[in-house]
Amino acid sequence: MRVLFVTNHSVGRKRAGPAIRCVELAKVLAQHFDVTLAATQSADIEIAGVQIISETLAHPSRLRAAAGRSDIVITQGRVLATFSFLRRAAKFLVVDLYDPYLLEYLLSPHPQFPRWGYLRQRHDLNLQLLRGDYFLSANERQRDYWLGRLCALGRLTPRECRRDPSFKSLVGVVPFGISATPPSHTQTVMKGIIPGIARSDFVLIWAGGLWQWLDPMTVIRAVALVSEERSDIKLLFLGTQDPNPDKRVMPIRSEAGELAQNLNVLNRSVFFKEGWVPFDERQNYLLEADVGISAHPDSFETRLSFRTRVLDYVWAGLPMILTEGDCLADWATRQYVATTLRPGDVAGWKQAILSMASSPETRQEMRNRLQRLAPQFHWERIAGPLLDYCRQPYHTDRASDFRGKLVPFLTAGFEGFRRFRSWWP
């Protein structure tokens, strides 16, 4: 079986969540199948057992040829919109929907054309839902959401229900994962190295990007209050620049820096690591930190999200302070490996930080529990549903393809006409 992964994210030493997921799933499948990974940009890594095709955006013929040789094509993001020929070339098409980017767009719309950008994103998403044979979600909440969208597009048919009334044969749950190899500290990178962070300091780490659908502001305000009582507690934002050069710069990064500056804690209690730490070096920061953090507002994106940075904390055995509302925060609360707080609760964050810093026994108990829990997230384990599909691929029912295509097309056309009329003098 020949499997082709296609991503429109940067597959290199510096890579964000979608590219990390693509690479790690490719590694797992390469133990069983002939695997190729195609990326739109240059790739500066090698993967044992996986052929890498780079710069497909500039050379689409490379991707077309690879798709022609493949039995199964696995896509993510807006790949099918970028390379429309894949919809016809793929013998069997798997669409990875773990990142609900349409909901992210709602919280970070195009600054000049928010409505048109939304319509484009929704149209591209509907095309994927109409064309895919099998879909991947990251958790059960997501799976319910995607089944609802598929039902609205006519993909939950009587024939599919006879095949599998649970529709697990249509949408599987494949969470984000972690390596089965524990992290090891190879060099000192933070404590005693970054000016302002001493070896004896207590460090909170934000081990991911600064995106509009997250809430660094609440944490910065809480750390500013903490700094009035303790000068040895520091906060480091590890990811401040998207490794994908074609992505829009989000204003949250500058807004967070301005807030820290205005509160007089920038480079005193709050630090921003410029750029993006290479994937194979991030463990040094994680292992030097004392607590991993993640915060977000109360939004629909939060409810369906799967915060990949939290998996890094699990991998590194880091106790956590998290905003409640997403599935991983709920899991961490049940397993007693995190303190969770309401969205926007500055006072709660302050108290949680001080409590965690003064409770080494609690932190060690959390570390011990995380060590026992980590294996359930190993890539080899969570990839099971995808492996099963690739061993015996099948087509799913598209009896209502025409209706499904017509509805989003007419909707987009009506919206465009209405917008045009509103502009006409």
Verbal overview:
- With 425 residues, the protein is an alpha/beta fold.
- The chain has two domains: 2-177 and 381-423, Rossmann fold; 202-377, Glycogen Phosphorylase B (Rossmann fold), CATH 3.40.50.2000.
- Helix content is 44%, strand content 14%.
- The strands form two sheets. It has a seven-stranded parallel β-sheet with strand order 3-2-1-4-5-6-7, with helices on both faces. Strands 10-9-8-11-12-13 form a six-stranded parallel β-sheet, with helices on both faces.
- Helix 5 packs antiparallel against helix 6 (114-131) and helix 6 runs antiparallel to helix 19.
Question: How is this structure best summarized?
Answer:
With 425 residues, the protein is of the alpha/beta class.
Strand order of the largest sheet: 3-2-1-4-5-6-7
The whole-angstrom Rg is 22 Å
Low-confidence stretches: none
CATH architecture of the largest domain, please?
3-Layer(aba) Sandwich
At the fold tier of CATH, the topology name of the largest domain is: Rossmann fold
Q: Assign the CATH superfamily of the largest domain.
A: Glycogen Phosphorylase B
Class derived from helix and strand content: alpha/beta
- Share in helix: 40-55%
Mean pLDDT: 92
Helix segment count?
19
Ends distance: 59 Å
Topology (SSEs and partners):
Elements: E1 2-7, H1 17-29, E2 34-39, E3 50-53, H2 60-69, E4 72-76, H3 79-82, H4 86-89, E5 92-96, H5 101-107, H6 114-131, E6 134-137, H7 140-152, H8 158-163, E7 171-173, E8 202-206, H9 216-227, E9 233-237, H10 252-262, E10 270-272, H11 282-288, E11 291-294, H12 300-304, H13 308-316, E12 320-323, H14 327-334, E13 338-341, H15 346-357, H16 360-373, H17 379-382, H18 384-391, H19 401-423
Helix pairs in contact: 5-6, 6-19, 9-10, 9-15
